[in-house]
Each structure stands twice: as C-alpha cells, then as structure tokens.
Amino acid sequence: MSAGTTAAAGPGKGRTGPLAWLAIPALVFFLAFAVLPLLGVLLLSFTTWDGIGAISMAGLANWFGIFTDPLMYNALWLTLIIMVVSWLVQTPISLLLGTFTAGNQKYRALLAVLYFLPLLLSSAAIAIAYKALLDPNFGLAEGLGLPVLAQDWLGRPELALFVVIFVIAWQFVPFHTLIYQGGVRQIPKSLYEAAEIDGAGRVKQFFFITLPQLKYTIITSSTLMVVGSLTYFDLVFVLTGGGPGNSTRILALDMYLKGFKANLMGPASAVAVILVAIGLALALLLQRIGGKDNSGSQLEGL
Amino acid sequence: MATVITKRAAAAPASNVRVRGRAGVRLRRLNLPAGAAGWLWLAVIIIPIYYVAITSLKTQAGYFGQNPLALPKTPTLDNYRMVLASDFARYFLNSALITAGTLVPSLAFSFMASFAIVRGRGRFLKAVNGLFLMGLAIPLQAVIIPIYLMIIRMHLYDSLLAIILPSIAFAIPLSVLIMANFIRDVPNELFESMRLDGCSEWQTLWRLALPLTKPAIVTVAIYNGLGVWNGFLLPLILTQSPELRVLPLALWTFQGEYSVNIPAVLASVVLTTLPILVLYVVGRRQLLSGLTAGFSK
C-alpha cells in the first residue's frame, strides 16, 4: 500500500512521448464504449425513441415525466433501502468472516474454500436456485420441517424485498470476505504481540487493532458494495422480475422495463442518468470519507 | 460438524501456548464462538448448493414425493441428458468465445496502459488515469441504452461481437487500477538496469514488467473472466437468436420453458457452473490468492 507512492516519485523515472501511445488502445475502447455512451444516455434523456424507429428531440418532457412518476420514486426508494440494508448486513458479516478466515487454522482454511463457492455462480443461476429453494412445498421449509419457512416468499411484497436482500448478501458476502481476509493478513503481527503484552483480549484486539487497521479495506469494500448495489439487475430480474407488483422494481429494473419492455427509451434514459449520478456521487463521497490520500500509510511509527 | 468442534476443544490445552503459523497469525486459545458462527455460515452457504445438486439428480416423482433435502432414492442423469439435448454445448461454446474474446484484448490493452501510466509522465497520461478511475463508478446498466443504439448502428446487433466490445471497455478501469498498483511496486533500480542494458521501453514492458505483474494479471483475468462468463445483461439486450445464447441467458430461457420440471432446471444450473467449479478445484489457491493480491493493495 505504501510502496506505491515512493516509487512513483523517484527521479529520472520514465519517459514521456513514446510511452503515451501504449495507453491508446485502452483509451479508445473506453472512450467508445463507456464515455461516449455516458454522454449518449444524457442526450437520449432529452429525446423520444421507441428503440427501433427514428429519434426525435423531446426537450425536457422526459424529465418532467420522470419527476412526477411514482414508479421512479418507488424505484429510487427501493434502491436506497437495498443499498443501506445490504451494507448494514454484509459489512459486519464480511468483516467477521474475513478476520475468521485469515486465521491459519486448518478447519478455517477448509471452511474458506467452501465459503467462496457463491463467487463462482452467475446471478441467473443463484436466482433460479433460490426460486426452487423457496418453494413452500418442495423447498427448504419442507426439507427442514420448519413450517415457519413455508411462506409465499416471492409472492408477498414485503417478503420479496427481504428475500432479494438476503440473496444479494448470499451472493456478495464471499467476495467481501475475501477482500477483508486479504486486509487482515496484511496487518503487522507486531501490533497484536504488543497488544497481547498489554493484556488486551481477543475482542479488544479486534476493535482496537483489526478494525482501525482495516480502514482503507473497509472503504474499498464499502465503495464496491454501495456502488455495486446499483447494479443488482441480473439477480432481481431473474428472481422476481420486479414483482410482486412493483415491490422489488429497483432503478436498474425500472430503466429496463421502461426502455426495453414499454419501448420508452427517453424516460428510461432519464432513469439511467439518475443511476449514473447516484453512482458517481456515492463513489466521490466515499473517497472523501476515506481521505484524499488513499495511499497514505497506516503504519506510521512502526 | 459438532464432532470437529469438540475435537478441537479437546486439543485446546495443548495449543494453549502461543503458536505462530504459516500466515503468521497467532493462534491462542480456541475461539469457540467464532468457530460456531463459522460453521453456521457454512450451513447458510452449503444448504442451497446441496439442494441444487441433489435435486438435479432426482426424478420428477422423487422431487414431488421425497423430502427435499433427502438424497435421491433413484438417482438419475436424465435431467442432464435433457439439458444437453437443449443445445447447451453451443451455449457453452458461445460463453467461452465471449470470455476469451474479452479477456485477451482487455488484458493486453490494460497492461500496456498501466505501464504507460506508471512509467510515463505528462498531462495526457494523468488525464487518462483520472478517466479510468472515474470509469470505475460507471454502472454498465446505466449506459446500456446508448450501447444498444450504437450496436444497432454498427450493424452488430445479434452477434457475439456486440457483447465482446462493451465488455472489453468495462473491464479496463479496474484492470488498469490493479495492474498499475503492481507495476508501481517494481523497484526503480530494475527499470534503471534495463535501461542501462540498452533495452527500449517496449522491451522493458514485456521482459521486466510482464513477469513481475503476473499476479495482478491473474487477478484481473479471474475477476473479469467470471464477470463476463456470468454476465446476463449484455447478452439479454444485444442478442436475440437462440443460437447466440450464452449460458446465463440459456439458463433463464430454459427455466422459463421448463418451469414445471424443477430437477431439469436445476440440472442446467449445475451444468453451467460445472466448468467454473472444475477450475476452482484445480486452481483454487491461485484463484483466491490472485483475487486478494489485487484487491487488498
């Protein structure tokens, strides 16, 4: 983490001109398929387009429409709920599991191998598996003999949202666990040894050494988690399709349904712009919280 | 599960002394609550996977008649035969093509760009770096409509290339970030000695930076490879023909068509995951340490 800055500052390093062209292929692709579409989506939000025919200017009509559209507010609200609750659920679990799997005990290594299995699965596969698993008659409830679990999980609005948050956690906790595991393993052992001499117990060590030392890991993981929560489209699309009713119709899904199902690309683009704006704002905010100098050393004085 | 915990507990007095292990993390007293929670989480992870695996081997009658978590009484591979008969080999090939087609160029371009960003100077490269960093926050979904429009205008709609091109672009920002971090850690003296030996930057790129950046390249390849292999949105929007379906899309259409035959649907889930699972079993250490190496920097 800290070595990066020192190397970059070294004198006599690198040459200008001839190196720049090495960045060109990546730049061209990125400009063409990420930056240009970004500008495009902004432009399209001021147009009328059905996805097939001609595109015509619509002025601010889409935007007036969007800001009086209850579906958009519903989607915005659901997206916020999923973002906040997912963060609250996933962060503590991933942190603890990351610390847990960073230990070198054999059984923990074995558990870690299995913990990471969901990383391999596609959102579509996970959604389909959970649809079967949540069946009140032929799924988990019947298998475990727990009638409490025999709910119409995907058929009742308040339960469906809960299921979506749970399945998202099931899918993404492993990834964040992996990030935290890496972070914990980089904490210098001398800190723990010193704490032990001072008589600090395991819980104290966790709160006074592990947690503060993981500051930047927490920011990285949270950024990925929060910005990522805008993009749970695949999972929700296959799991609930936004239903029942509109109870899981998050922003990304609202955009898809408006654009590709209702053929209203203009309003859909406006929703997309909102999505981009939220993503950029959140990323900037989290970087601010983390402090400007992200590569600053946490190990000062060691 | 319980037996392992008690066995550990019995061994506790012996390991009461401080032991320092390979990873250097101390192992003091046995941490029972952590162990218990660890096994509990395992159940959360494993039960769904177990359910999918056993159900995929059940007959329809077994699915309706047996306890859902019981092993199949009359295990059958018919579900798998049925899935394979639904053209899954083709979908597999499509997925492999878009994954390879995305990874090779995106890795090469990202590597060259990170080298330039770290080794070069000047406002241009700074701006490029800033642009890529900003790109990390652009969600793919948000720009799918203009991408759709562009792909139509380029007459690429309903082709594998339509999926590959945007995938390359969206793989670049994170790849550059991770690779650049690695190249920065290469001691400057090595670059200097390459230069004293009369090597051009181009030669330095391939002979020095590439081998030293291998862990980052593996990380990026795995991360982006999984993302493309499992990607759903681009194929959903940009293709239409059944013969161009990739695995996640095929899964979705399959479950739509065979929604009454859950064992067959779950067999398709297993079958699409199997190749990745084999890779995981073979290259787990590389895969996990690769992911961590990149992200914990």
UniProtKB/TrEMBL annotation, chain A:
SUPFAM superfamilies: MetI-like (SSF161098). The keyword Cell inner membrane does not apply. Gene3D superfamilies: MetI-like. Keywords: Cell membrane, Membrane, Transmembrane, Transmembrane helix, Transport. The chain crosses the membrane at residues 20-44, 51-68, 74-97, 109-130, 159-180, 224-244, 264-286. It holds the Pfam family BPD_transp_1. The keyword Transmembrane helix applies. Residues 76-286 form the ABC transmembrane type-1 domain. It is a multi-pass membrane protein. It is found in: Cell membrane. It comes from the Bacteria. Belongs to the binding-protein-dependent transport system permease family. This is Sugar ABC transporter permease.
UniProtKB/TrEMBL annotation, chain B:
Residues 92-283 form the ABC transmembrane type-1 domain. The keyword Transmembrane helix applies. It comes from the Bacteria. InterPro entries: MetI-like (IPR000515), MetI-like_sf (IPR035906). The chain crosses the membrane at residues 30-53, 91-118, 130-151, 163-183, 216-238, 258-282. Keywords: Cell membrane, Membrane, Transmembrane, Transmembrane helix, Transport. It is a multi-pass membrane protein. It is found in: Cell membrane. The keyword Cell membrane applies. Pfam families: BPD_transp_1. Gene3D superfamilies: MetI-like (1.10.3720.10). Belongs to the binding-protein-dependent transport system permease family. PANTHER family: ABC TRANSPORTER PERMEASE PROTEIN MG189-RELATED, ABC TRANSPORTER PERMEASE PROTEIN MG189-RELATED-RELATED. This is Carbohydrate ABC transporter permease. It comes from Arthrobacter silviterrae.
